[in-house]
Amino acid sequence: MSSEEKSFDVEVRGGDGTWRVAILGPEGEVVSERACHDGAEARTYASTVRQHIFWLSAEKFREYYRIDGGSEG
Fold it and tell me: How many CB atoms lie within 10 A of CB 11?
C-alpha cells in the first residue's frame, strides 16, 4: 500500500452490555456498524474485519461489507 493510499479501519465500541463494531472509512467516518452480543463477539468480529482490510482490495472490501463506493469512479 502506498503512503498516499487511504484504507479502512475498525473500532470496538461499548461496554456495560452495549457493544458495537464500527468500520471507519478512509476519512475516519463510520461507514458500517454492527451490534454485538458481548465484548468477546465484538473483538472477534473486529479481528475478522481487520484481516479483511489487510487481505482484500478496497473494492472487494466495499463489496463484501456492502459499503457504498462514494463519489469515486
Answer: 16
